[in-house]
Amino acid sequence: MATRLGLLAIAVASLIDSSFALGSQCSAAGIPTTAASGSFWLESVASQGFSPLNPDTGYKVKRSVKDFGAVGDGVTDDSDAINSAISSGNRCGLGCVESTIVPGLIYFPPGKYLVKKPIVIFWYTQMVGDAKNPPSIIAAPDFAGGPAILDADPYIADGAQYWVNQNNFYRSLRNLVLDMTQLPVDAGTWGIHWQVSQATSIYNLRVEMSKDPATNHVGMFMENGSGGYMGDMVFNGGKRALDLGNQQFTVRNLEVNDAQVAIYTNWNWVWTFLDTKVKNCGIAFLINTGGNTTAQTVGAQNILDASIENTKIFVQTTTNQPDSLAGGIVIDNAELKGVEIAVADKDGGVILAGGDQTIASWVQGNVYEGTSNTPKYVRSTLNAVKKPDSLLEDGKWVTRTRPQYENVSPDDIISVRAEGAKGDGQTDDTAAIQAVFDKYAGCKLIFFDHGMYLITKTIEIPVGTQMVGEAWTQLMASGEAFSDVNNPTVAFRVGKPGDQGVLEISDIAFTTRGPTPGAIVVEWNVHDPEGQKGAAGMWDSFIRIGGAEGTNLNSANCEKLTNTGSPECMAAFLGLHITQQASAYLEGTWVWLADHDIDHNNSTQISIFSGRGIYSESAGPVWLIGTGSEHHALYQYNLVGAEDHFLCVIQTEVPYYQPAPLAPAPFTPECQWDDPTDFSSGYAWALRISDSENILIYGAGTYSFFNNYEQACIDTRNCQSVINDISSDSENIQIFSLSTVGADKMLSVDGKGVIDQSANAEGFQSTVTYWTQ
Ligand SMILES: *[C@@H]1O[C@H](CO)[C@@H](O)[C@H](O)[C@H]1NC(C)=O
Ligand SMILES: *[C@@H]1O[C@H](CO)[C@@H](O)[C@H](O)[C@H]1NC(C)=O
Ligand SMILES: *[C@@H]1O[C@H](CO)[C@@H](O)[C@H](O)[C@H]1NC(C)=O
Ligand SMILES: *[C@@H]1O[C@H](CO)[C@@H](O)[C@H](O)[C@H]1NC(C)=O
Predict the structure, then answer these.
(1) What pTM, to 2 d.p., does this model score?
(2) Of the residues 215, 250, 267, which one is the last residue of a structural domain?
């Protein structure tokens, strides 16, 4: 352990001593919340959001379903009205591949919206209800016309679907109740068909289904995609309350009551269920297992901080488990009350007995230790791992929901457009935006009406800021200040080193207009105040670099295979930097260098270049809940001198162009940035940890899919030789459920390959259930 960690600990301790002086009107404690009367602020706030690059100057981003004729009386069929609120304005529906210029925020005032037909959730659509009084969408008894009531990817002829499942970005559902109880009991209708990818979210959703023992209702069906995050959901009733399959996903705070099967997982590479409550069900988790390379089933499933009550079986697998890898399972802190069997095989045979007990740690799968390359197949309890107190609250991982400001009155909201920022993708908004932060941070909720806000100098986002976008408002860095790769410059600086206080960001997309080789897109400095763990956080926001209209980093100038680092295709120095004295609660953060052009040319692949993904040197605590980092040249996640981090499903892909050029080109590793120096594989690292302590990872999906845009290497499972590296100067590094694709060695220690994928091949992916030093 290097001494710098010790020094850091002292720095943070002294910070906490000098607690922030509160009392002034604007403060690091954030805006006062009073029980505001009247409607939800999002309903009453003047709608000044627009889509500047949409040729239709009358295009509306925010639409209330009532303006399209929805009645909301529980009797009138509102399906056509809701569908036209979604589709009006030439949006991205059937026949449209993807588009960022047609955002839609579909608002539902309080009411009961009866629907007789499916509601098709177009590409780039948020469906948002009143957070104070969530509206219901009620399926009529004669509902017909499709398998799902809310459908994010409808089927068309021949099993095809509207959108490519792995590119099904930009959807959100918030503050909604979906009522399926009027449907016939035997209807096999799905409440939500949620076949989605990154940049999607669900917050505050309740689904009501029949509780009849003969019910066929399914609350959510997901068959594939590449997600993702969802949370704060309640499902009552149903045959399978949720039936889920996707490459990777994080689900936080899911509650299921009175279902036959609460959660069925049909396939995955790696999922985590964090903070799940199941009550009065037959089976809490039914896991489809026993697959192989041709018939993929569940690869890895983590169940953390679960509470299971009055339910016959906690976990059941669909195959009787041989004494070899057949679906990795991790149970970590599960409280059982009135559970007959904790873990059952296919026939209900007892693998782990139930009762009233707390399971500290139980795993099924291949376990490795240190530099040994021999797996041990385990199906048993483990010694509980050491979890630092800083990451916990009441013995569970700290979790924080996305703030929705339902108690903030409209008078406490400041619109950046009303304050003079243009958001038109042309005007330099640097001064206007900085002025808003300087004046209102810590006393008003700063609302970024939808738009594209260009900035040309570093924006200082002060501690105390609470800011929210409108359907992922774009804050876009461009110009000279970010043009020098040898002089990297922060575009959005969140607090200053040493700051302590509240900081909240949600619904924002941080982007660049290239070339921006010197851009550090977001630098995160704020530490949460003592006694308020997770108060410095970001929710449902992402860093998206290139690939879209207005970025100048797209198929028009950076087509794949034609450039190996052209100056005009240089997109960023670093995506997200979490600095030494910061803490961070990041939920649903995707740091994406675009691999394809979303807006032009049918998703054409492009070659643009970003040096680094997420770099943390924080002394903690840091919670990364459902995050991803993709296609950066040197690394996706780099933890150096970091302490007390909880990583709960991280997902990565390396650049598709590598090894042309070989990593790290077109960038140069720099030691003052703690860059890795070993690039002998010629490829970027997915995850690299060095000189760090107490890093707990529950779910990592790290993938290598290409050799210079060719995919033959997937079949031979060796697109790159090694993908994740841990250095032995680190302490207490715990990795549960590591799944890799296309890497010969899944993990190396000090650069020497340790874990062979071939010993852990399960389906398309290889999975290790647990590795520790
Ligand atoms: C995703 O699911 C759809 C519908 O079942 C299927 O047609 C498609 O082949 C699946 N794609 C992948 C990549 O699994
Ligand atoms: C994979 O599993 C399927 C379904 O159990 C089985 O039909 C198939 O033969 C298996 N394939 C291999 C290569 O083991
Ligand atoms: C579309 O891609 C082609 C190459 O495939 C390129 O020549 C053209 O400029 C692109 N068009 C746009 C509008 O990006
Ligand atoms: C887009 O690409 C897909 C897959 O290659 C192809 O089936 C489709 O016809 C293309 N559409 C257009 C408009 O070029």
Answers:
(1) 0.95
(2) 215
